[in-house]
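Inputs:
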Amino acid sequence: MDAYERITRNAAEVVTEEEVETLADDPDGKRAYVGYEPSGVLHIGHLLTANKLIDLQQCGFEVVVLLADVHASLNDKGTFEEIRDTAEQMKEQFLAYGLEEANTEFVLGSSYQLDEDYELDLHSLQVGTTLKRAQRAMAELQGDDTAKVSHVVYPLMQALDIEYLDVDLAVGGMDQRKVHMLAREELPELGYDAPTCLHTPIVGDLETGEGKMSSSTGTTISMEDSTAELEEKVNAAFCPPTADPEGDLVNPVLEIFRYHVFPRFDEVVVERPDEYGGDLVYGSYDALEADLESGELHPADAKSALAASLDELIAPGRERLRELRG
RNA sequence: CCGCCCUUAGCUCAGACUGGUAGAGCAGCCGACUGUAGAUCGGCUUGCCCCCCGUUCAAAUCGGGGAGGGCGGACCA
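Outputs:
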């Protein structure tokens, strides 16, 4: 797999392809970033972008993980002390998950976002951006909370972060695309470059196959799930024997195989009772999908394999969390 | 600052006029059926009725105060 392929695999979109091709021509030392609001426990959504960061590292990129304490504060997520504490836990979990420590720079937002230059640039952005535009950028992230002034400052800071972290590629979920598009339009107004962006898909809800999986409502997979909890959650997942269910639904079990399992494992073994034909081995997502579609692989067997794979992926982080919490 | 409207289950809302400590749909949970889940049946759960004070034997309901949210306050009509 060449650099361009690895950079763009499993991406929902890149903006623009030409710009990414240029990065892929000489990826060594290029910088990519994702920003996260500090959270005590990583969930599967975090891991989806982390997988992309791992891809990028394998291509030679330096990765910057922004632990966005100021953003969390703007989102009313607690005191700075609490937020920084969870930021530290988040960093440890990312490392346990598989980000290369030597090639990952963890940056606390407050380490530069309170500087004068940053503040003045932020005000310039505020002058140049309409309320409607900022609110639209934030709509995907904010939910239906009452709009606060902090909510419109938030995406402007995200835009500015891309410049101040000196990154060549901004990575985020599709929920971040409006923020990134805002950055592409507004940063040049301040004399900065428009950032190149890469967006990961948003995985469908585990239980219903609808929309995006939510971390606050419904079921999500997280770094602290026990083996038994993983089995329970995966077993409860929506999983018709097809990759393309009726309507707008998706098959979340397949999606997780595609976006979480196969990128991290060369081979997936599906343990299957002899009565149903014995074990199966898959070297690619496509092969697994084809077997589910044909009926060769039963959803229940796919699920137990998925739970086992997730357990393996999460185990180091789960262990690290246990150590951190004493 | 002024005016009007809203606040009841996780969600959307009924109930308020004619006081008697609350309902529906959806969601959720459990079971049946499928070698998964869903669908489909069957069953079940859920509430500081925004807060405080007052009237009353009795307040979600009436009165007063407060909080939060929405909308409006040139001209024209």
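Remarks. Chain A has a mean pLDDT of 90. Chain A has two domains: 3-200, 227-325.
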